[in-house]
Design a protein that fits this description.
By secondary structure, the protein is α/β, with parallel strands linked by helices. It contains 12 helices and 15 strands. Bound molecules: pyridoxal-5'-phosphate.
């Protein structure tokens, strides 16, 4: 069997171990410590926009804290992009709120501003104004934040921006993660950079980030004994793990460059082939191209997404259908959904291709050989 080609696997830069060793040498093994502070500073510098960052144990934890900090409570409604990973929607239920799913639009595959406004009007007509909006930048492609922010401001509903897949993506030079009232990032094992597991909460409002750090460390009031006036969480990133993050931040720019180069190679090879369509980047957008994705139109192509996926699997090459929309998931299908069939179509015809920054040209050669065979 030829070696496995993964969709997206961790890719260390080399200096991570030194930061981790420093943590051991100074016995900063606990949560908090110089690596955590340093990692937060590195991300703040990278994001710009006077952003403040709290390093947390995961992107999911960041979303959960984000909802808590926006004051979302049991019985509230939260508008959420349907086309996403379940980690975007799960935290809505952690706070006892109800997810209201919104479909994607064709240009970016992310939350449709038109359907978002339709959903807001209908929820208000039904008697409840939603408490938050969660758009996602899928596969690194920025959502239409301009239009979404206009709606957010008009109806006074804050945005919790899920930038888990979009570290390094930007619109008109402004980085994803800095558009929402609160943004979140993920450093899970498959993301563009990883700490093996981790996440961050981002906001331009420093007091929100201070509150996040407070809640993430069990909400301990200042007192010599343990004193609590709020419910806390154990969501802080550990100083060991943050050391990996510091090393990864040193190579982030080159990781983005490599992912974009991989996209270009797929594009050069496959664009214009019958029934194969790429998600192109509007010119004022910059996508980190976390994963290269494509759509197969079976009527034009003469084969289906599944034919291609199985052919790749036979060669020990991992690929995966696009995210199955939340409104189609057994666990979420009873919740309201505002849509026009876009996400369903994307799920039916879309495929994520191996896109890791450690992909070699030999790997691409093997992948293209499968395409040649299937397209014959
Ligand atoms: C990975 C991911 C998350 C969750 O991040 P974790 O760090 O794995 O908890 C949330 N949303 C999206 C869109 C993701 O891809």
């Amino acid at each position: 069997m030829k070696p496995k080609i993964w969709l997206s696997s961790p890719h260390m830069g080399g200096t991570e171990e030194q930061y981790v060793k420093d943590a051991f040498a100074s016995n900063w093994i606990a949560p908090l410590g110089p690596n955590v502070n340093g990692f937060e500073k590195d991300i703040e510098l990278f994001l710009g926009q006077d952003s403040h960052v709290a390093a947390l144990s995961s992107g999911t934890a960041a979303l959960h804290l984000g909802l808590v900090l926006l004051g979302v409570k049991a019985g509230d409604e939260v508008l959420c992009q349907s086309m996403t990973f379940s980690a975007t929607a799960n935290p809505i239920t952690y706070v006892g709120a109800t997810p209201i799913f919104v479909d994607s639009e064709k240009d970016t595959w992310n939350m449709s501003p038109v359907l978002l406004e339709e959903a807001i009007k209908d929820r208000i007509a039904k008697g409840k104004k939603p408490k938050a909006i969660i758009p996602v930048h899928l596969y690194g492609m920025p959502a239409k934040m301009g239009a979404l922010k206009v709606i957010s401001a008009h109806y006074r509903i804050p945005i919790l921006e899920d930038a888990a897949e979009a570290l390094g993506s930007s619109i008109d030079g402004r980085k994803c993660g800095t558009f929402g009232d609160i943004g979140i990032l993920s450093f899970n094992g498959n993301k563009i950079i990883t700490t093996s597991g981790g996440g961050a909460l981002v906001s331009c409002n420093e007091s929100i980030v201070k509150d996040a750090r407070f809640l993430a460390t069990q909400a301990r009031d200042e007192a010599p004994h343990y004193q609590h006036s709020k419910i806390g969480y154990n969501y802080r990133m550990s100083n060991v793990v943050a050391g990996i993050g510091r090393g990864q931040m040193e190579v982030l720019a080159s990781r983005i460059e490599k992912r974009r180069e991989i996209f270009s190679k797929y594009f050069e090879k496959l664009n214009g082939k019958k029934g194969i369509h790429f998600l192109e980047e509007p010119f004022w957008y910059f996508s980190n191209r976390w994963l290269t994705t494509l759509l197969i139109d079976p009527a034009e192509a003469g084969f289906t997404r599944e034919d291609l996926r199985l052919a790749l699997e036979k060669e020990n090459i991992e690929s995966r259908p696009l995210w199955k929309p939340m409104h189609m998931q057994p666990v979420f299908e009873q919740y309201p959904f505002y849509g026009d069939g876009t996400a369903e179509k994307l799920f039916e015809n879309g495929l994520c291709l191996p896109s890791g920054s450690n992909l070699e040209s030999d790997d691409l050669f093997r992948i293209f050989a499968v395409f040649d065979e299937v397209m014959r």
